[in-house]
Amino acid sequence: MGVMMQESCRGQGDGALPRVLFISPRFLFPTDTGGQIRTAQVLRHAHGRWLDITLLSPATLQQQQEHAGDLSTICSRLIPYRTRWQHSTMRALGRAMSLLSAWPVSVASDRASHLKQCLRRLMQEGRWQAVVYDFTHMAINYDPPPKGVPALLFTHNVEQEIFKRRAEVARGRFSEMLWRNQYRKMQRFEDSVLGCFETILAVSERDAAFFQRLAPERTIRVIPTGVDTDQIAYQPPGSEPVAVFVGSMDAHQNIEGVGWFLEEIWPLVKQRTPEAQLRVIGRYPPEGFRQRYAADSSVTFTGWVEDPALESRVGALFIVPLRVGGGTRIKIYEAMAMGLPVVSTQVGAEGLALKPGKHYLQGNDPEAFSQRISILFEDRNRTLALSREARTLVERKFGWRHAARAFAEACLQRG
User: Fold this and answer.
1) CATH 3.40.50.2000 domain extents, the chain
2) Residue 79 has pLDDT above 90, yes or no
């Protein structure tokens, strides 16, 4: 059977610009995860300015129609491909079966034979300046490009580090064994695939150093994390003792971090500030969380909201109680841009060019984390000073155009 291809033109590509094929594991809109935000912003600021982007991505016809305007800002052409499992029931079953695979579940789930067929056809179209795979697990679909066309891997995390940390904080023997098994599989996979790519794109100097140790013969470039300060207006933080968390609540690291915060940190905060409130803003909060805290009027789970930034404006501070994760947290820069002072663990702020005590407050155990929150609830002058310092920093150093330029230069330069 022949391969059915749909191609959607999303704006006019400049034929004089270098052509780059960008391969995404997820449809990028709406941008409600950190990875989607980073990718969409980098493409938006690079496309039409330095590069002519062709986007290869899963996309239903409805998604293409609803987000035609968004797509026109990040690519001149969208080519949709079929994922391995089209329906949620099959996807859940497939992920469960993938536990028996030699690959970690996240890698096995992104295998897509139709994607490889699309790639082979596209490579026959003509000269590409570069082919970019987004996220490490997409390397499972790697297909060697023609000679002279470099392949780049855009890593958003050190994936094996995330799995290792999941194992370290796992509760129960079975959960720990499961995550250690996934960690070993991801370690083997990540170590083995880096050699396929001419250039590895990392999101922090810390991640870059890790990848350089694994693949010393490869070129490693850093694509800095950014924030759109033109779109995010500064506002002094709220004066009421409201702490805000923003993040997809179907993500493992957020579930673990918020669970730890609620169980071990929030009771200490309430002892010091009985009137304190917590707003957890993010899609798909676990039903167990909702049920457990249904009678606690100090804790609110909003679920999905159209504008997380607007929902966050009531906060006096922004919390990042993460003990699992990798890469960099875009949400921290966005909170700083809004004017919300940040209290974070070291892991939460990892990879960002921030100084604890100057740009955010750091707490790595329940007592320290709760004390940092109480400082900001009780000292309005300290809160305002931290808010202004953080906004000044992101305005000066962390615009998305800087990140997009680094991406374009990586695509255009060899070695």
Assistant:
1) 8-226+400-412, 242-397
2) yes
Percent of the chain that is helix, strand, coil (3-state, to 5): 45, 15, 40
Residue 170 neighbours by CB distance under 10 Å:
17
According to CATH, the superfamily of the domain at 8-226+400-412 is Glycogen Phosphorylase B; (3.40.50.2000)
Which pLDDT score, from 0 to 100, does residue 20 have?
A: 97
Q: What is the pLDDT of residue 4?
A: 31
Q: What is the distance of C-alpha 203 from the center of its chain?
A: 10
- Is it the case that residue 326 has pLDDT exceeding 70? no
| Alpha-carbon gap, residue 356 to 346, rounded angstroms | 9
pLDDT tens, position by position, 223-264: 988 888 878 899 999 999 999 999 989 888 899 999 999 999
Q: Phi then psi for 47, rounded to 5 degrees? A: -70, 130
**CA 67 to centroid of chain Cα atoms:** 20
For residue 21, list its beta bridge partners.
54, 131
List residues bridging with 56 in a β-sheet. Answer: 23, 79
CATH number of 242-397: 3.40.50.2000
Cα gap 58→26, rounded to integer Å: 6
For residue 173, what are the contacts with CB-CB under 8 A and spacing of at least 6?
none
pLDDT in tens, 113-129: 899 999 999 998 878 99
